[in-house]
Automatic annotation (TrEMBL):
PANTHER family: UDP-D-XYLOSE:L-FUCOSE ALPHA-1,3-D-XYLOSYLTRANSFERASE-RELATED. The gene is LOC110988668. One of its GO terms (cellular component) is Golgi apparatus. Belongs to the glycosyltransferase 77 family. Residues 1-43 are annotated as: Disordered. Residues 1-24 have a biased composition (Basic and acidic residues). It holds the Pfam family Nucleotid_trans. It comes from the Eukaryota. InterPro entries: Nucl-diP-sugar_transferase (IPR005069), Nucleotide-diphossugar_trans (IPR029044), UDP-D-xylose:L-fucose_XylT (IPR052636). Residues 132-291 form the Nucleotide-diphospho-sugar transferase domain. GO terms for molecular function: glycosyltransferase activity. This is UDP-D-xylose:L-fucose alpha-1,3-D-xylosyltransferase 3-like.
């Protein structure tokens, strides 16, 4: 069992290209990749195998479907422009999304595309509206993917695909803690005991004993048919009541990790000129999110349809 001092399991030292040899919790392995020379740069990541070996034991994780493939590519392009090189796993929720993303990522040493074995069917971008049934089914799978990697000893940085990177965030994930989130209510760096509203759309997870216990319980509650609360609601209720254990949470400042409702405010932007990552929480639907990116010169790819 992993200790709470961030001692990694030996599996965390495995190369990323072997990450899914033993898939867990619904993930099935991608097709075998051809051997990549250390100095070959990936088309999506801009990174070489030598580059990603400099950040061992860390995994950037996203999940996507047909409706949000273009948003996923836009996210990855923004990461590329920061110069960050990190092992990245993309979980595709449908066969079409899997084949398309696999084609885009072919030969990229930093990108691994896997698919869930519980597909949602082909999704219409217009149907993935915030908190509707299809959206909730997609969202509530990410915790199992996070746990699968934590159990292998990885530090996991999960982010929704409708995020945009401006700078390298990893200096904020150093030190001793279990998880890191943005709290939409807390005055940074204070953690509120009963009124916090941490957002799981962007979270960093260390593979500690406490983190593993917490994520397993999170999943258990979410899969209960009687549960009617969002994953964010469950997350915060568990933290408020220390269920099943008290976890050490690193607060991420809204100043550097803003959500859309503050980021797109001109007055806020005037006062906060150096964001690190923004996430489009609060903007409903694929097309509205894409339009906001385009209005702010943050749409970096050619196609504008998630199904293209």
């Amino acid at each position: 069992m992993l200790s709470d001092h961030h001692i990694k399991d030996k599996e965390a030292k495995q190369e990323h290209l072997q990450m899914t040899d033993e898939p867990k919790l619904g993930m099935t392995p991608a097709l075998p990749s051809s051997k990549t020379a250390d100095n070959n740069r990936g088309k999506i990541s801009g990174c070489t195998l030598a580059d990603i070996r400099k950040r061992p034991g860390v995994m950037l994780l996203v999940n996507t479907n047909t409706g949000y493939m273009d948003m996923t590519l836009n996210l990855l392009e923004s990461v590329k422009r920061t110069g960050v090189c990190v092992n990245t796993t993309i979980v595709a929720e449908e066969e079409k999304a899997y084949q398309t993303m696999l084609s885009h990522a072919h030969g990229d040493p930093a990108i691994k595309v896997v698919k869930t074995d519980q597909g949602l069917g082909e999704a219409d971008p217009g149907k993935l509206v915030l908190f509707n049934r299809e959206h909730m089914r997609l969202v509530n799978r990410r915790h199992r993917y996070i746990l699968s990697l934590l159990e292998k000893g990885y530090e996991v940085f999960f982010t929704d695909v409708d995020t945009f990177w401006f700078r390298d965030p990893f200096s904020y994930f150093q030190g001793k803690f279990d998880m890191a989130f943005v709290d939409e209510r807390s005055p940074y760096p204070t953690r509120l005991r009963r009124k916090s509203l941490h957002c799981p759309s962007l979270g960093y997870f260390w593979p500690t004993n406490r983190t593993l216990q917490f994520v397993r319980k999170w999943i258990q509650i979410l899969v209960d048919p009687k549960n009617q609360i969002s994953d964010q609601g469950v997350l915060n209720r568990m933290m408020h009541a220390n269920i099943p254990v008290h976890v050490v949470v690193r607060q991420l400042p809204v100043k550097y990790f803003p959500h859309a409702l503050v980021f797109y405010n001109p007055d806020w932007r005037q006062e906060n000129k150096d964001p690190i990552i923004m996430y489009n929480m609060g903007i409903k639907g694929h097309d509205a999110k894409a339009e906001k990116f385009k209005e702010n010169n943050m749409w970096l790819i050619n196609n504008t349809s998630g199904t293209g």
